[in-house]
Design a protein that fits this description.
By secondary structure, this protein is of the alpha/beta class. It has a single domain, classed as Rossmann fold. A seven-stranded parallel sheet has the order 3-2-1-4-5-6-7, with helices on both faces. The chain is globular and about 55 Å long. It starts with a strand and ends with a helix. The structure holds NADPH dihydro-nicotinamide-adenine-dinucleotide phosphate. NADPH dihydro-nicotinamide-adenine-dinucleotide phosphate (NDP) binds next to helix 1 and helix 5.
Length: 270
Amino acid sequence: MGKTVLVTGASAGIGKATAIYLAQNGYNVYGAARRIKKMEDLKGYGIKPISLDVTSEESLAKCVTQILGEAGSIDILVNNAGSGYYGALEDMSISDAKYQMEVNVFGVARLIQLVLPTMRKNNFGKIVNISSVGGKVTLPMGGWYHASKFAIEGLSDALRKEVKSFGIDVIVIEPGGTKSEMIGLGTDYLMKVSGETSYGQLAKAVSKMYAKIEKDAAEPIVIAKLIKEGIEAKTPKTRYAGASGAKVMLFFRKILSDKQFDKMVMSKMN
Ligand code: NDP
């Protein structure tokens, strides 16, 4: 049996594709999410579905204890579970913003804390954090989503230096537009919180832009392949970017000033 992998958010999108792809390539895969029924099909690939809510300490601890009990180790953690709720900063409630940070940041960090003792003991581990192109560039209405992904970028950079001497690699994945449930859920929420406020017009423009991103989105297997490349590299890169628009956006972010980049983004809103 190959290395043991825990993929969070395995009930849909990138997480499901990654769990399947890694299982097909010989890994011993555990797929975790809240909707256990949506992971029934994973059993056919030899994947073990586990119920997990990354905002619950009890659920996180139970999930890790079960895998360590059955497999003895979690060699690779793919921190993929995430949510993308958009809305103008003025409109979005702080409690919804906190929930987004609970899922996208604190859930990720707590899971890392839970897997590190065994990884350190084994002097081996790969921690893959799914960030986003949105961890480097921003669109209006995405403040809290971007804040969560910028946080993942910073946490990962610091962690990489902390755990290197224990034989553990930290790998950041920066997807661009990828087919999943996230964009639809996120824009529904956007129109609910900002569609009828002073930001209504911008909300409609952003929503239209996301509809275009969704239409051009890459298949999640593109990201699954990047993850496999990262975990199998002898010396992994710190970051892997892929899927629709990812490299172009990161390139422009690098070469343009903040204001030039703002102008470019806002010129696409109509
Ligand atoms: P989906 O919405 O399709 O999948 C999200 C997954 O996260 C689901 O399996 C969901 O499972 C799980 N999840 C959400 N909340 C929780 C929770 N509280 N506890 C446990 N699991 C949870 O989105 P994607 O596949 O697109 O998203 C995967 C990652 O990729 C995210 O981190 C996202 O930010 C990132 N990303 C996606 C992009 C895209 O264009 N799609 C672009 C850039 C980054 P369940 O509801 O069953 O719990």
